[in-house]
From TrEMBL:
Limits of the Glycosyltransferase subfamily 4-like N-terminal domain: 19-184
Pfam family for this entry, one: Glyco_trans_1_4
Glycosyltransferase keyword on record: yes
InterPro entries the UniProt entry points to: Glyco_trans_4-like_N
Tagged with keyword Glycosyltransferase: yes
Protein's name according to its UniProt entry: Glycosyltransferase subfamily 4-like N-terminal domain-containing protein
Organism: Corallococcus caeni
Keywords: Glycosyltransferase, Transferase
Length: 381
């Protein structure tokens, strides 16, 4: 089978959606597929820094490419919001027997609903530009793609429910397929339990309000005031260390360890010193940081976003707390701090929970979906 994976990002192994796109492509190749990629690097050669203007132009540049190259592929697997001009034009250049699949790395409508609610509550401020593109025209583009594609792949059940109930996309045209874990995260040995020393907390992800930064700062500030001994490491902030440190009270800054960027394959080694993951994100498509941290032996204290409800089982593999609930986050951390033996048992359970998330399995499910969509399309002609 010949597959094109197209994505509105520059391809990089060490970034979220681009990294999983490359991983999926390799896993499909291992199952005998011929896989090509099309990304910002192809649409905008030589460009290093991208803006909303590139995102606005990408669907049209991609459409021109598809008109020339679609006939070389059986399946065109394209990120949401990007294939609608080509589909509207009647899919020029495609084989008679082909499938157009659109793939969401986090449904934009779900994200928009959450941050608009946060803005109304005064938790964040939206730019005046937001309703013009990301909160306006881009949502229209995504909806058009969902309607015009033969099938849509989503990352979580919440996004699927929104697509069904709010956008009126037929359930038969929707599938939920998550991500796998790279081999670096499988079969890791859990370090022996620590007999003494501070509780080691970690946050993995960008230093953004949408990722729960305000809640994490509030939690550790309160824990410190209550006298709990701990350290906090922040991995992959994407923000320079001085700016991250300045966001915390001065009394907490000696307890911080900041790693603005890391190569993804090195994350298990970085997390080997940690015990508890603070995953206070307000919105996620999937949440690779969560499952990668669990695979590395951290017990999660997580909000119920993205993949969390499917892998974080309260009291068995971690704690689920309501979005924005600082009291619940503090209580969960204090409970883990008070019971070292239980904390270690939960770390082991969390690690075991995600070991079944493999790219070979995701590729097998994806390939079966492709074959079914091709069959349905052939039968309908």
């Amino acid at each position: 089978m010949r597959v094109l994976l197209a994505i509105h990002h520059p391809l990089s192994q060490d970034q979220g959606a681009p990294g999983v796109t490359l991983a999926l492509g390799r896993a499909l190749q291992a199952r005998g597929c011929t896989v090509d990629f099309y990304s910002y690097g192809d649409a905008f050669p030589g460009v290093e820094h991208f803006t909303a203007l590139h995102n606005l132009r990408f669907p049209w540049i991609l459409s021109a490419h598809l008109a020339r190259a679609a006939r070389r592929h059986d399946v065109l697997d394209v990120t949401t919001g990007d294939a609608w001009p080509w589909a509207r034009l009647g899919r020029p250049g495609a084989l008679r027997r082909h499938a157009l699949v659109t793939r969401s790395h986090g449904l934009e409508h779900s994200f928009s609903r959450r941050i608009r609610a946060d803005a109304r509550a005064g938790r964040m401020r939206l730019s005046w530009r937001y309703p013009l593109y990301n909160g306006g025209f881009r949502l229209w583009e995504v909806e058009q793609t969902l309607r015009l594609a033969d099938h849509t792949v989503l990352l979580n059940e919440g996004d699927a429910a929104f697509a069904r109930e709010q956008l009126r996309i037929p359930a038969g045209k929707l599938s939920v397929i998550g991500h796998g874990l790279d081999t670096a995260f499988h079969g890791l040995a859990l370090p022996a339990p620590r007999e003494e020393g501070p509780l080691r907390l970690a946050m993995v992800g960008s230093f953004l309000k949408a990722k729960g930064v305000d809640e994490v700062i509030a939690v550790v500030t309160r824990l410190h005031a209550q006298g709990l001994s701990f350290t906090l490491s922040l991995y992959g902030t994407g923000t320079p260390e001085p700016e991250v440190r300045a966001a915390f009270p001065a009394s907490l800054q000696p307890l911080l360890h900041v790693v603005p960027r890391y190569a993804n394959a090195t994350l298990p080694g970085l997390l080997a010193r940690e015990e508890v993951l603070l995953f206070a994100s307000r919105t996620e498509g999937y949440g690779m940081a969560l499952v990668e941290a669990m695979a590395s032996g951290l017990v999660p204290v997580s909000t119920p976003v993205g993949a969390a409800p499917s892998v974080v089982h309260p009291g068995r593999t971690g704690f689920l707390v309501p979005i924005g609930d600082v009291d619940a986050l503090v209580a969960a951390v204090r409970e883990l701090a008070a019971e070292p033996a239980r904390r270690y048992a939960l770390r082991r359970a969390a690690q075991a929970e995600v070991q079944g998330l493999t790219w070979p399995d995701i590729a097998a499910r994806t390939l079966a979906l492709y074959e079914e969509v091709l069959r349905v399309r052939a039968d309908s002609r």
